[in-house]
Each structure stands twice: as C-alpha cells, then as structure tokens.
Amino acid sequence: MSQSNVVYAASRNPTRQDLFARAEEISADLSQRAAELDRDGRPPLAEIVKLKNAGLLNALHPIEIGGGGLDWVDGLRLVRILARGESSIGQLLGYHYVNSQYVYWALDAARAHALGSETVAKNLYWGAAVNPRDPGLVLTRRGNGYVLNGRKSFSTAARVSDYINANAALDDKIAGFAVPTNRPGYVANDDWENIGQRLSDSGSVEFHDFPVYEEDFVGAPTAPDVAPPVLSTFNTPFIQLVFVNFYLGTAEGALQAAVDYVRTTTRPWITSGVERAADDPYILERVGEFTAALKASAALADNAAAAVQAGLARGRDVTARERGEAAVEAYAAKVHATHVSLDITSRVFELTGARSTADKYRFDRFWRNVRTHTLHDPVFYKAKEVGEFVLNDRIPEVSLYS
C-alpha cells in the first residue's frame, strides 16, 4: 500500500511501538519512490505532512502534552529508520527534533511548556536560521518591537518550516529568538542545487522587516564572548548525533538496495563457479563486511546518544565537564559514521555491477547524500577534539559546531 493512502488514528500519545512501526512504513514507501524524488528535487511538503500525521514530529515531547515521550536514543533511531528510505527526510526529522527540543533547554519551565504545548497541538515543524559561518541577520528596534533584516545563504527546511530558531546581531550583542514563519517578511528561496540531500529544502532565506517581539526572545541578548548556560548548549552534540544517524541510515539503505538488486538482477561472474550472484563468495564477503561495519557504528551511535541523554537528564545541574565528556562520545561516533557511510555508499557498486549505474536506479544518490552533508563541518576537527580529550584531557570548546 502506498504510504499516502495510510491514515493513522490517534496521533496524540502514540505508543513507542506505533511510532517505530509508522517510521518503518514511511521509510519503505520513501525507498520505493526515492529515485524519482531525488531526480525531481522538490520541497518535501507532502513528506512532512506524512510525518505530522504519523505523530513522528511530536515523538520526543512529553506525554502529558500529547507527545510520544520518547528519549533521544529512540528519537535518533527514528531518524536512522527514515534515512534508510530517503536521506533528506531523516535529516529533516532530526533537525526538527533538535530545533523543537531546544526550547526546553533554553527557556524557563513555564515558557518552554507553553511553546511545547503549542508545537504539539498545532503539529508544528521547526527549522532554524542560525548558521554561525553565515552571519547576516540584523535586528533593529522599531516601535514596541523589532524588525529583522538580512539573508542566510542556506537554511535547511526553509520552505517547510512552521517555526524557526534564529539569531541576529542587535547593537553589539547577539539575540536568539523563536518565531513563526507565517509572519510577513519571511522569504524562502528555491535555490538549493547541490548534488545531494536534494529534498532537504536547504535554500536561502531572506528577512525583510520581519517583525520580532520581546516574547520571541530565547533569553536576553548577550555579548558574543559570554558563555551560554551549559544546558542550552546540548543542541550541538545532539545535532551531531542527528548527522551520525542519518549518515548510517543512508548507508543502511544503500546496502539494502544493493542486496535487493543482487538477489533479483546481478548476474554471477563467469569464473565464479556459481549460478547466482547471491552465492558469489566475494559478494558474500563484502555484504558481511559492510553489515559488520554498520552494526558496529550503529552501536557506537546508540551508546553516544545514551551518554548525551544522561548529561541532558542532569538538567540545569549539568556541568561543563559533564557536557564535554558526553560530547566527546558523540563526536567519536561522528568520526566513525562518516568513514563507514562514505565507504559503503561508494562501494555498494562492487556488489551490483556495471549495469546498476544506469540513471533509472540512481544508486549514486546514497553516496551523493552523505558526501554532501559530511562536508557540513570537517570531520578531522571532530577527530582532533576526541584526540584532545584523550591525550590532554581537554573537553571540546563550546560552539554551534562543537
């Protein structure tokens, strides 16, 4: 059955079993359509609606406000499942989780509860415009509020977001805020033309006298060199774990596509001595090696997620040291997942053979997707941060990348 024909009942308070089953169904449907979706590269508006209808956007919100009540270990597994079907959709789900959960870490309990409740009740998708290497947004006082002007050269989920986190210069300080995208002055451009993650809706955004109010602020504006509260910095290790899991999900999807192709289409090599490609010892060896590498990397990812989740559970009592130790676990997983996913997505053609490079299959999309996003921040800096901790007992410097 096409996923578009599936109707989910009682999307408020779905069980863990419900959420995982729905993620698997959506992923399977995406896998069937992935080549076409990649070729078209359109904004994934219908796909986001499916995530909303399945209750997946609210999986991490508390049960008492209608969410699924899952922890981050499970949430990141959902990201991995979705990425098996289509890498960009896994990315979008993970980005939403970090952006929507950030309010619980950065706001006081009452405001966080109110905004979380609104998010669940309205089934909002959260994006962000906070790329730190692309400063360009400026807040200016006007009347009883502010107006936002400027441009971000890319903003994942630019056109599908209902709400965004953003930051901007305000005099000599930096202001962070959360705002709905339906206010006048928000412009999302259709200019994402990269080789991979073609459904991630990562085009540029512009703000033209976009209204911002005091109640939108996430904390008071601060000088750029002022350290933020430790709890509010958990967005970075979690977003890095989102990367880890959709890289691995993409590689898992590539291997599954290759296995399916070998079973149905690949011909045995003329000197193999076997009648089926699935019995070729060299193909079997590679499938085994790839599977072992993915299992190891997924276990490392889950372990890292549990470590960062434990630090988050300390709440406002968490120390910079505890955050740093947990972040190192996430960054070690990032290093491993990057290497494993790039290796497997480029080498699955060794299983499938020359005919599998035909454009109709678009098996190259798996590699294009991980190659594009693994350049988000240099993985060798993540390896350096892990090395600094092991050799010199230095925790990573806090930033939107570390």
From TrEMBL:
Residues 242-376 form the Acyl-CoA dehydrogenase C-terminal domain. One of its GO terms (cellular component) is cytoplasm. InterPro entries: Acyl-CoA_DH_C (IPR013107), Acyl-CoA_Oxase/DH_mid-dom (IPR006091), Acyl-CoA_Oxase/DH_mid-dom_sf (IPR046373), AcylCo_DH-like_C (IPR036250), AcylCoA_DH/ox_N (IPR013786), AcylCoA_DH/ox_N_sf (IPR037069), AcylCoA_DH/oxidase_NM_dom_sf (IPR009100). It is found in: Cytoplasm. Pathway: Sulfur metabolism; dibenzothiophene degradation. GO terms for biological process: L-leucine catabolic process. Keywords: Flavoprotein, FMN, Monooxygenase, Nucleotide-binding, Oxidoreductase, Plasmid. SUPFAM superfamilies: Acyl-CoA dehydrogenase C-terminal domain-like, Acyl-CoA dehydrogenase NM domain-like. Residues 140-209 form the Acyl-CoA oxidase/dehydrogenase middle domain. It catalyses: dibenzothiophene + 2 FMNH2 + 2 O2 = dibenzothiophene 5,5-dioxide + 2 FMN + 2 H2O + 2 H(+); dibenzothiophene + FMNH2 + O2 = dibenzothiophene 5-oxide + FMN + H2O + H(+); dibenzothiophene 5-oxide + FMNH2 + O2 = dibenzothiophene 5,5-dioxide + FMN + H2O + H(+). Residues 28-97 form the Acyl-CoA dehydrogenase/oxidase N-terminal domain. GO terms for molecular function: 3-methylbutanoyl-CoA dehydrogenase activity; flavin adenine dinucleotide binding; monooxygenase activity. Signal peptide: none annotated. Its EC number is 1.14.14.21. Belongs to the DszC flavin monooxygenase family. This is Dibenzothiophene monooxygenase. The lineage of its organism: Bacteria, Pseudomonadati, Pseudomonadota, Alphaproteobacteria, Hyphomicrobiales.
